[in-house]
Amino acid sequence: NITGIVAFDYFVSTKRLIVGDTYSSMIASYKLDGSDRRVLAEGKIGSLDGIAVDWVTGNVFWSDSPATEGGEARIEVVNGAGTARKVLVSEGLEKPRAIALDPVMGHLYWTEWGKSSPGIARVDMDGGNREPIITTDIVWPNGLVLDLIAHKIYWTDANLDYIGIANMDGGARMKLVETNIWQPFSITVGDGSLLWTDWRYSSIDSVSLTNSTARATVMNNLSNLMTIHHYDSTTQTGTNDCAGENGGCSHLCLYTNNGPVCACKTHLELEEDGKTCADDPCEVDNGGCSHTCSLSESGPSCTCPELYMLDTDSVTCRASEKSLLIAAHDLIYRVTLDTPTHQVTYLNYNSISYSLALGYDSKNERVIYRDARMGVVSVSLNGSHVRQLNDDVDAYSITVDNIAGNLYWVKRNMVKCSRVDGSHVKTLYTGTDGSTVTDITVYPQRNYLFWTVKEENRGSVMVSFLDGSSPTIIDDSPTKPAGIAIDYRASKVYYVDLDTQDHYNLISMDMDGQSRRLVYQGSDYRFIDIAIDDGVIYWTQAPPNNLYSARLPDLSESTALLSYLSIKQKFMTVNVYDLVVVNATEPDGQSGCEANTCEGLCFGFSVGNYKCACEDGVLTSQSNTSACGEDPVLLRAKRDSIIARDLLTGDETT
User: Fold this and answer.
1) What gap in Å lies between CA 322 and CA 335, rounded to an integer?
2) How would you class 363 by CB atoms within 10 Å of its CB: exposed for 0-12, middle for 13-18, buried for 19 or more?
3) Model confidence over 28-74: pLDDT tens digits?
4) Backbone angles phi, psi at 400, to 5 degrees
5) How far is it, in rounded angstroms, from Cα 507 to Cα 537?
6) 0.85 cut: is pTM over it?
7) Helices and strands of the chain, counted as H and E runs
């Protein structure tokens, strides 16, 4: 359940991995087999790019670049128990990346990616005595490693494509490798060699420290390479006066060149003895908070985990009930819609592969998505109980009738249906050869199913009853129709069309195709998919992958809810696709399937009026229309198929 690893370190003496998970906004330690997870820091972490463990005290340091524009970059530390977390450096930072420690001398080094002042700097391990080390001929310093035996620093520059070397104070600087190197990221030292990860060739390469011409490729064909570390018997040796009894400090012992310094978690003060921290009001009945008690300059305050918000009593956390799910390759984003600020979380479903289509089963609180390896998959919101509903890896769009419990999806030129548990798969519509059904949506309270079709030179919007019967074109004017959604409040259909001038059009119309209206035409909004809830339209936009909302019917109060949705996957190009509202506001109504007795599928037509249907290849019985496959049938073989004919009803199926 870890999907956002960029940085990690290894605590040699305890044999524990220290891992940063950017997507979960968490730092935790693990045994080498991945067991015994211990959370050290959680929350208020934007983009975790560098981690280093102080092997003398067990303190863990990390660099944090802002995940959103205007966020605060920080360098922080937490003790090995995870009970005392402190911000060490926050001023004058833009994008701190790699960090490295010299506990013997009491120094912390980091690389800075910010455009205004890229370089390498160091501070004492308590955050004091900051000084620049490397400031010229450096643009994208990715990797950083210290050779504490030779007293050297090494770094990589992914823009200028070189590996540099200098003394610990930045003197005697030179380029160790500057030819045949492309986009070096992380770097480590060991066994007389430097090793680094190369993004262009997805490889780990090495060079001798004594002979820069002695180079080799250690491994290749490794995708998504991030941090690399080398550990041996010389790693993490040396000590300081923080060793033993934590230097006498009650919380954090941070060693400097002038000796140990005791420190407290952020916003907690030291007592007069300089070693003991004042009592933490959050440690008494959790400060009265239902979830997390946090200290600020004004005192204790209650905060909530992701997908929760503070209630009016300012101490109780209430779960977010309404959110957007957004499919984006190997991630599914969840964006809250009812919190004071839109919170973004990442559904860490390890099985996701190139997700394009999304639906939501509100009765069972399960996400349904298309996976390139598994087909159509159902999973609970917390990622547990994964179920393969079918192996249709070509599913492109998904929608759910949450009254009848039916799942609809499109595959090339077909509309297909099953129960939400994946049983009783039935083909409802097959278009002409060469046509593609591009999106689908359902209005179960009115018993309608809508979908868009793209053909070679034209497109159309179609409607049918929920069982696919009476398919009718209600708009034949679009060129390349895409996303389609229903505004329940106004009983309007909205769809997206890309015309011959490459304009993105948003069109609305009545359920029967009448009162067609062009809501938007242009290229500022490059719609990918749309969703509508409570009179508000949401849409994903082509790169740079923004999420917008606006009031209907005229796109008033247009707002960019989130910019660059793939911010936490900044090392990869990620496009966003389908989106769906969790717990959308739907009109009151019944479809007729509330108390059905169908053995197979139920399709509602009006209150108390429904039709049973059976899966492909099975016929509905004449004597019992709720049952499937009970009538006698005649099977006849053709060269390419077998046909079943019901001898009582005359119905046929392949």
Assistant:
1) 9
2) exposed
3) 999 999 899 999 998 788 788 899 999 999 999 999 987 555 568 99
4) -130, 130
5) 12
6) no
7) 0, 55
